[in-house]
Amino acid sequence: AQKVTQAQTEISVVEKEDVTLDCVYETRDTTYYLFWYKQPPSGELVFLIRRNSFDEQNEISGRYSWNFQKSTSSFNFTITASQVVDSAVYFCALSERWETSGSRLTFGEGTQLTVNP
Amino acid sequence: GAVVSQHPSWVICKSGTSVKIECRSLDFQATTMFWYRQFPKQSLMLMATSNEGSKATYEQGVEKDKFLINHASLTLSTLTVTSAHPEDSSFYICSASKVAKNIQYFGAGTRLSVL
């Protein structure tokens, strides 16, 4: 069975600091997807990134970057120069089925990030 | 884009009444929609997977007669909480997955309070 662990329940930083959110996963499949979602106080989950299991290249999107390491089953998320608007709960998730629209997501417990001015 | 609209965003009802929540994919067709429940400060718990034109698949422990799901078209799924009780009070979130694409896009959620 698959499992996603986000060991950091809460993180608090001061604006402009860099912060890394950890995500470790377990799966028996060789093909899978990993995701990060952001849930601001309004409640809606915002899709940030999807990474497939064959692509270990790190990805950067503006202040966001992701480090996927299959050897350690980790998919960490770094926010550079954090801003107050980054305050939210961040979820890491795993989908074990490949390129189908009916795939279930297994979510981690989420990390509450608070960025203080 | 990939916009999912969920309505209502907030509902209060009396115990024993039924409440219907709608989930619409506005700019894409969704063969599969998902319904989640989220308790305060907790992760999302999948309740059921809804495929267009067929019966929903419920997760273990979710009462299908209490949480009725209908996915009548490629852009609309509904969740009806029947005979609601205070313990059904929660945040319900839907998501929709594009045809042949493995990304779920989420609605803004519905906060249900049962008095």
Structure notes:
The complex is a heterodimer of chains A (117) and B (115). By secondary structure, chain A is an all-beta fold. Chain A has no helices and twelve strands. In chain A, strands 2, 5, 6, 10, 11 and 12 form a six-stranded mixed sheet that branches. Chain A is globular. With 115 residues, chain B is mainly β. In chain B, 0% of the residues lie in helices and 56% in strands. Chain B is built from no helices and eleven strands. Chain B has strands spanning 4-7, 10-13, 19-25, 30-38, 44-51, 57-58, 67-73, 76-81, 90-98, 104-106, 110-114. In chain B, a hairpin with a 5-residue loop joins strand 5 and strand 6. Chain B is globular, with a radius of gyration of 13 Å. The chains are: A mainly beta (117), B mainly beta (115). Chain A binds chain B through residues 33, 35, 37, 42-47, 50, 91, 95, 97-105, 107-110, 112, and chain B through 2, 30-32, 34, 41-44, 46, 49, 51, 91, 93, 95, 97-109, 111.
For the sheet with most strands of chain A, the description reads:
6 strands, mixed
**Structural class from helices and strands of chain A?**
mainly beta
Q: By helix and strand content of chain B, what is the structural category?
A: mainly beta
Tell me, rounded to a whole number, the average pLDDT of chain B: 92
According to DSSP, the number of beta strands of chain A is 12
> What's the oligomerization state?
heterodimer
Please outline the major beta sheet of chain B.
7 strands, mixed
How far do the termini of chain B sit from each other?
A: 38 Å
- How many H/I helical runs of chain B? 0
Number of DSSP helices of chain A? Answer: 0
Instruction: Write down the overall mean pLDDT of chain A.
Output: 92
